[in-house]
Specification:
heterodimer, A: 376 residues, mainly alpha, two-stranded antiparallel ribbon, 4 strands, globular, B: 384 residues, 16 helices, 71% helix, 2% strand
């Protein structure tokens, strides 16, 4: 990570932050409502991308099931909103229950009457589920492709479960949050959406710092150790299962927060959040941005989604080709992602190719770059 | 008894679709440690091949042979999916050897492209493209060795690709002008109608079995036998087994692992095509048809373990029979007066989607005891 080692001038850092904060505050006035809403959604997606980066970029676990935790967070938030604004419906429960003849709120939704509980549940429940799945899988030293396949299968299981249970969670239709009330205001209203945008922007920054803190120090070193040579970590006396479980549940918690923010901004949570393509897309945001670079995950999520919406508006059919090509290209030609390429040897190699920069004679380019060990 | 037989047959029918689809995946995974996420799309290509073959056999010249189109399409599907698979191996997967997770992502990209390709390119020209790929890839290998060894071989290769492209365009436009259904791109699902001799039912020991299901079981049986014979009796089969067991050692002993990889990937993809024919008999064919089966295939591979076909066979029939038992709530009809809480639980899981939930839970529990599947590979190479 050569870029992070370069000491930026304090003034530059300060002004960067001031500009960033000014942009966040001013965004609602600069952008039309529709674009602002999109930006807010994509920013919330970047939180789940941070989680993917933690488990894939740093720990080497390719999870294809982050959609589970994303949707769980979304369902928690949506159900709270539905319950609190259900006073005019029969039995004081959300409207859809009446369609299926349910008269009493299912017991596990009961705690969601409390805002504090919901606030905690949004990230604790996904984290616990992730921890459980992770523990069962890691305990048996299931790793690599097997792990990916199992996470994908569990994603499908959750999808089937949520899709099929009309009486508990409204099945395929999902839960709408647009017309619900929060603090006496409509969630779908413009002023509410503006607040959500600011909350999202703050949480993205907070999540970024949190992720930075996680990968810093010994804990982060062990994660990278697990990625690069797990048996050696084990032989050194660490138990990788614990670390993998912890990081997987952290990623799950981040996904939950992200899902909740995305839900309130898109106005609905449905089992569609748990489809296979969506969870794999999360991985490609990180891959394009640069895995192992936290900023890359954020930028990747925002830019790819923005590109997706722009391209699909103009040429609906071509996005699948572009996305598929992006998968192949990034994996074969740019394995470190865009930011990883910029931070690594990429620009120098490019300049060297045109003879603009002196070739480095030493191997492995000691004086210029202290790159950490290559992952195989 | 009759009920049990019925349930068993249904389970075997579900399992045999899974088996023929998972067979290719398991072989490739065993050999290269690569999970091919585009496997479902290769199945989809096989299913579309069946559709195209059916329409072409409706042409006046081929009309007399219409009833045999399904047999022809099995071979064609094998070739089409196999060729696409070989191209995939040659262009992408070979570059990613040793990084299975990256392969996973790249093959997902391929699957997206294939899905959209079927949506936005007319099937006639798709057929033309496949034909030109076939010629371009295989024509050079048929040249006499005198040409192959000459310095000018690349020019011969180049000209054979040009020839291939021309043939492809020609066939494409020929098909598109003669079969109007294939000349337009459409994202709509298409239907394959089974030939008359495959419609209806057969009665065995008092129970009626649909003929298409029997046909699928037969296709699966033949595929399994053929692949077992190939792996155990032929020279290339022996090489494949050797590379599966120990790649470096086989390389040292002079086995061309590169060729083994291509052949295995081609055969694995070809089997996906055959599975596509089976799938096309079950329902309508669309760009997403592979996605419905692919996770089941992964489960079979995870459950069955690597490098042993018996594991794959047992796992797919196991999953098939369990799916039917749980999903159709058959346990209740076999044992009608079971205690109430138990029957409530069974009723809760008695839908196709909830059966999947249950089966996955069972697989996870199973993996707690045998993390590497039914028949794990033994030896020192296994750990990494």
């Amino acid at each position: 990570m050569s870029l992070s080692k370069i000491k930026f001038d304090k003034k530059i850092v300060l002004s960067f932050w001031i500009i960033l904060i000014a942009l966040i505050i001013a965004a609602p006035t600069l952008l039309p409502v529709f674009r602002l809403n999109l930006l807010g959604r994509y920013l919330s997606l970047s939180i789940v991308a941070l989680g993917v980066d933690l488990i894939w970029g740093y720990t080497g676990l390719l999870s294809l099931g982050q959609g589970i935790f994303f949707a769980l967070g979304g369902y928690c938030a949506a159900m709270y909103l539905q319950i609190t604004s259900a006073s005019e419906f029969p039995n004081n429960i959300p409207e859809f229950f009446a369609l299926y003849g349910v008269e009493k709120l299912p017991f596990f939704w009961e705690p969601f009457r409390s805002p504090v509980f919901t606030f905690l549940a949004i990230w604790i429940i996904p984290a616990l589920v992730a921890g459980l799945i992770g523990f069962l899988v890691f305990r048996n030293r299931i790793k690599g492709v097997y792990f990916s396949i199992l996470t994908q299968a569990s994603l499908l299981v959750f999808f089937n479960f949520f899709n099929g249970q009309q009486k508990l969670i409204n099945g395929t239709n999902g839960l709408k949050t647009d017309v619900t009330q929060l603090f006496g205001q409509m969630v779908g209203s413009e002023s509410m959406q503006r607040i959500f945008f600011w909350i999202t922007a703050i949480l993205v920054i907070a999540a970024w710092f949190f992720a930075k803190w996680v990968v810093k120090g010994r804990f982060g070193n062990i994660l990278i150790g697990i990625r690069d040579d797990e048996p050696r970590v084990r032989f050194t006396g660490y138990n990788p299962v614990i670390f993998k479980t912890i990081i997987f549940s952290i990623a799950g918690g981040l996904a939950g927060i992200s899902g909740a923010l995305y839900t309130v901004q898109s106005g609905i949570v449905s089992p569609q959040f748990m489809t296979v393509p969506f969870s794999i897309e999360m991985v490609i945001w990180v891959a394009v941005g640069g895995r192992g670079t936290l900023l890359g995950a954020i930028l990747g999520a925002v830019f790819i989604n923005y590109a997706k919406s722009l391209v699909s508006e103009a040429l609906p059919a071509s996005w699948m080709f572009i996305q598929g090509g992006l998968f192949i290209l990034v994996v074969t030609a740019l394995p470190e992602g865009v930011l990883g390429w910029i931070q690594g040897d990429g620009p120098r190699n490019l300049l060297q190719r045109f003879g603009l920069k002196r070739k480095i004679e030493t191997y492995p380019s000691l004086e210029v770059n202290n790159k950490e060990g290559n992952n195989e | 008894m009759e009920l049990l037989l019925d349930s068993l047959f249904n389970g075997v029918a579900i399992g045999s679709v899974l088996l023929v689809a998972a067979l290719g995946l398991a072989i490739v995974f065993g050999l290269m440690g690569v999970i091919n996420l585009a496997h479902g799309e290769l199945m989809m290509l096989g299913a579309y091949t069946t559709y195209v073959t059916q329409l072409i056999f409706k042409l006046p010249i081929l009309k007399p042979f219409y009833n045999s189109y399904i047999i022809v399409s099995i071979f064609l599907a094998f070739i089409v999916s196999g060729v696409v698979g070989i191209l995939l191996e040659k262009t992408i997967i070979r570059k990613l050897y040793g990084s299975p997770l990256e392969t996973l992502l790249a093959t997902w990209g391929v699957s997206l492209i294939l899905q959209q390709f079927v949506r936005s390119v007319p099937l006639a020209y798709g057929t033309g493209l496949v034909i030109s790929l076939l010629i371009g890839l295989f024509l050079p290998t048929t040249f006499p060795s005198k040409i192959k060894e000459s310095i000018n071989f690349k020019y011969f290769k180049f000209s054979s690709w040009i020839f291939a492209a021309l043939t492809g365009v020609l066939t494409g436009s020929l098909i598109s002008s003669s079969v109007s259904k294939l000349s337009r791109a459409s994202a709509r699902n298409v239907d394959v109608t089974a030939p008359s001799w495959m419609r209806g039912q057969v009665e065995i020991i008092g129970t009626a079995f649909p003929k298409t299901r029997l046909m699928i079981i037969v296709i699966t049986l033949i595929s399994v036998i053929a692949i077992t014979l190939f792996l155990n009796q032929s020279a290339w089969g022996m090489r494949i087994r050797a590379v599966t067991q120990n790649r470096q050692m086989s390389d040292c002993l002079g086995i061309s692992t590169e060729k083994v990889d291509i052949i295995t990937f081609g055969i694995g993809s070809g089997l996906a095509g055959v599975a596509g024919v089976a799938v096309s008999l079950l329902g309508s064919v669309g760009p997403n048809v592979g996605g419905n089966y692919i996770v089941g295939c992964f489960m079979v591979v995870v459950l069955g373990g690597v490098g042993n076909l018996l594991g794959t066979v047992l796992a797919s029939f196991g999953i098939g029979i369990m799916t039917d038992l749980i999903g159709a709530g058959r346990l209740l009809s076999i044992w009608p007066d079971m205690p109430l809480p138990l029957s409530n639980t069974i009723n809760f899981f008695a839908t196709t989607s909830m059966a999947r939930v249950m089966i996955f839970a069972l697989i996870v529990i199973f993996l707690q005891f045998k993390p590497t599947g039914l028949f794990p590979q033994k030896g020192r190479m296994v750990e990494n």
